[in-house]
Amino acid sequence: MASIFFSSSRRKMLACSRPLPFLFTRRRLHQPYNSLTESDVQIFSEILGHNPSLLLQASDPIVHAASTDWTGHYWQAPARLLLRPQTTAQISALLAHCHQRRLPVVPQGGKTGLVGGSVPTVAHEEIILQLQYLNQITALDPVLGIVTCQAGVVLENLQDYCANHSWLVPLDLGAKGTCQIGGNLATNAEGPYFRKYGCLAGNVLGLEVVLADGRILDYNYRLSNNMKDNTGYKWHQLFLGSEGTLGIITGVTLACAPLPRSKQAAFVACSSYDQVLLVLQKAKQYLGEILAAMEFMDAAIWKLVEASGRHQMPLSVETILSESAVQEGGPFFLLIDTHGSNANHDQEKWQTFLEAVQDDILNGVLAQDIKQYQSFWQIRESANPTVAQLGYTYKYDVSLPIAQFQDWIQEMRLERLGPLARNESSSLVNANWGHILDGNLHFNVTTIGKREVQKDVLDALEPYLFHSILKRGGSISAEHGLGQAKNHLLPSVHDEHTLDLMRSLKALLDPRMILNPGKFLPAK
Amino acid sequence: MASIFFSSSRRKMLACSRPLPFLFTRRRLHQPYNSLTESDVQIFSEILGHNPSLLLQASDPIVHAASTDWTGHYWQAPARLLLRPQTTAQISALLAHCHQRRLPVVPQGGKTGLVGGSVPTVAHEEIILQLQYLNQITALDPVLGIVTCQAGVVLENLQDYCANHSWLVPLDLGAKGTCQIGGNLATNAEGPYFRKYGCLAGNVLGLEVVLADGRILDYNYRLSNNMKDNTGYKWHQLFLGSEGTLGIITGVTLACAPLPRSKQAAFVACSSYDQVLLVLQKAKQYLGEILAAMEFMDAAIWKLVEASGRHQMPLSVETILSESAVQEGGPFFLLIDTHGSNANHDQEKWQTFLEAVQDDILNGVLAQDIKQYQSFWQIRESANPTVAQLGYTYKYDVSLPIAQFQDWIQEMRLERLGPLARNESSSLVNANWGHILDGNLHFNVTTIGKREVQKDVLDALEPYLFHSILKRGGSISAEHGLGQAKNHLLPSVHDEHTLDLMRSLKALLDPRMILNPGKFLPAK
């Protein structure tokens, strides 16, 4: 995917030796990069204590694996070098050398971001820097529920640790068993509990960051864990969602929520998208403060998950279709999840809610126990791996006004997928899901049996798809970020003042542009 | 207060003509400023459409009033000029001229920040720029509860407007009838509902800002209102809490919460601070997701509010003391507030909570109706005006580990206030309150009958007080910001890397240092 999209812009970026005409900064950008030498490798080895498991060369299969993410879309060639520091001080020393020598670096967590932000672009010969050995949970305040940990802690491990102390990490993702908290922060991953537990911008109380030149910045990370602090610019926020282009996050202090004592979930099926919206409104009204998440799945993804045979489905599309008329694309399924502190109260709220929607839904199944609750979430979370297994998937993570989800999907089907299917270039499946409470849709087009990107499919979808999203007031990247997949689109999203400011911030914090080149910011 | 503290550092700042030795930026800082001329006034008048009510000169009583805040601490002399633009475009044109001419500007909202951030420092001859005529609420998304408004909207007006549409602005302050939302954002004001509804960093979805040179920046303000957007650096966060030193906030898009259908509050009295902590833990446990705020008041502030005669107090210190032994400083009062969607459920939660704490408290009164609920909050909110009326008040807004509130207050009394009282320099009252759920304490020393700062009192309190807070891992400014009152302390709070970064961000966004000079950043 990347090779088709970005080769021209990458060339432009590499060729850029004149000072960029920033309004904010007039610094010369130092490019291109130097090539790695044996002397560099020796210096890195010394910093890492001559430990062979912390410095791996291109021929190592681990480096091969680290050079692509799990989508497989961004594979080009093995990176020259993979570094696995164990401390912030080592990262500082490694970066100071890379900065001085102008060697580009790609920071890497669990590689689950889906937009190619965590893998090399080869054109720049990046060194991969993995965070996985910075995996200590260093403190948990039992009164406030503030947890401090290093960036390489796997999200699920952090969740389990905090849950054992009755606290809930305010972030959950399908990839929790693989992704690392540092990567979650660097990509500003949000997930389904965004409305209930707030966004990372609000829950991150402290951050430790190593800048490109090796300086270590500390924002309320080592010495304090205050909920409120108003003693300076909130510069730490710049690193959230910056995809490692401004600095490398090495530690975080995070505000947790009390662990819910009562969890409940139901799947309901609706015949039309208008019914979906009605159920959403009534869920807010009757479930109130316990409403934790509301996940949308259309008939296509439901059928694919059902066909995978891996899940016991509580509802069947075929049965519904044999009994009821539904809107095109339907039936639509909603996974409604509640978190509360009093099971009796939660059950009563559920009862009044289900009574209120009984005429609006085709069918509904309430989880009977925590096991079924978990199995419902497994159905939802299997959406992504299910389509990935079927073939190359063109994935679009967008924000849209909630009322327009299905209308926009229909527009895409009529305008883009219909004509494409008639060309018979591929066997296409369009399957969609998302966090409807947040207006966040995951739109997916899978080319069955294919493993490579196809130019005709891509051309049919883009840039039409993105322009259509922007025209409707949406966002072309809701929670997965830009990486290599969407950074070229930023000039359509932001005006020149904003782009200038972003470039200036980059020039300020990483003047030699060594951090994650070819990602996030578009080439100019 | 300011004149004693800062005259030397101000002189240093004015005298600073050499380039600051930033690690990040090596730009020359252009100071001192130019003086205002008749030609400048003519240009401003033209930009403001020659409307005499939008441009006021020093002789006008309105300018006199605008040159100090309601504490009266920071008064020096009337500002030379007061501008009251009506549009973002006018602000842009005004700032472009000030930038070009090197004329310093102090942006001003409701002036309720308490740290002198919104008033002139006279040494710089600032022009005051009031935001009050940018007071339009421009949109409210009925499904998502996202409100868009201009910076000059008074917080209470915004609350009322949203409440009429069943949405709750996720911010409340005692000063809501006066403060403006733009000022709330610029000072990162948080208030009592921080834990329940999240912080501004999380709830601000969009921002419009005018930079020092007149450029208008837009972060998801005019064209979109997406809950999730990951298409760039989160630069808008820099302006929250920056006290107008990086740019002037002119508009905001804010995520609201559903209006609670059930509100309940109680005052409880505890004999010791350990009991307070126990009640806090049990409130979290039994009230769970409906716990909205928990406000601490010590015996001293309770007695002062009682003595003011303006409130019907639900509990009496004298009665409690006649019946029970209490810890020094006690009895301690807690205002516990809940917001929920189901009154029956909330009442049951209250019942189990009150049963669980009945042996931990001396007494408790549950509000019988919404009128009493409001009167409880009025008691809490009257704390600030009550001490202000009694005399000059040395106010300290700090974060502390919750368990240490009373221990630290006792330390201050023993080490600092006791010796001071023995000197009989003043009649002192130490009265304290705060948002205990957030670890945010408001510590106040009032010199009865005095209207001016006294050097001996100040010297007894500072810098000891701040060092003691930092030693305990607290923050010297929890929610009121730095302004003129605490900016000189930043070198004790942050390391040189962080200070450098803050100065570099200032130099990037306001290279001529025209925005709110003498505030926020310390002179170097």
Automatic annotation (TrEMBL), chains A, B:
<comment type="similarity">
    <text>Belongs to the FAD-binding oxidoreductase/transferase type 4 family.</text>
</comment>
<dbReference type="InterPro" id="IPR016166">
    <property type="entry name" value="FAD-bd_PCMH"/>
</dbReference>
<dbReference type="InterPro" id="IPR016167">
    <property type="entry name" value="FAD-bd_PCMH_sub1"/>
</dbReference>
<keyword id="KW-0560">Oxidoreductase</keyword>
<dbReference type="GO" id="GO:0016491">
    <property type="term" value="F:oxidoreductase activity"/>
</dbReference>
<dbReference type="InterPro" id="IPR051264">
    <property type="entry name" value="FAD-oxidored/transferase_4"/>
</dbReference>
<dbReference type="InterPro" id="IPR006094">
    <property type="entry name" value="Oxid_FAD_bind_N"/>
</dbReference>
<dbReference type="InterPro" id="IPR016169">
    <property type="entry name" value="FAD-bd_PCMH_sub2"/>
</dbReference>
<dbReference type="InterPro" id="IPR016171">
    <property type="entry name" value="Vanillyl_alc_oxidase_C-sub2"/>
</dbReference>
<keyword id="KW-0274">FAD</keyword>
<dbReference type="GO" id="GO:0005739">
    <property type="term" value="C:mitochondrion"/>
</dbReference>
<dbReference type="GO" id="GO:0071949">
    <property type="term" value="F:FAD binding"/>
</dbReference>
<protein>
    <recommendedName>
        <fullName>FAD-binding PCMH-type domain-containing protein</fullName>
    </recommendedName>
</protein>
<dbReference type="InterPro" id="IPR016164">
    <property type="entry name" value="FAD-linked_Oxase-like_C"/>
</dbReference>
<feature type="domain" description="FAD-binding PCMH-type">
    <location>
        <begin position="74"/>
        <end position="259"/>
    </location>
</feature>
<dbReference type="Pfam" id="PF02913">
    <property type="entry name" value="FAD-oxidase_C"/>
</dbReference>
<dbReference type="Pfam" id="PF01565">
    <property type="entry name" value="FAD_binding_4"/>
</dbReference>
<dbReference type="InterPro" id="IPR004113">
    <property type="entry name" value="FAD-bd_oxidored_4_C"/>
</dbReference>
<dbReference type="InterPro" id="IPR036318">
    <property type="entry name" value="FAD-bd_PCMH-like_sf"/>
</dbReference>
<keyword id="KW-0285">Flavoprotein</keyword>
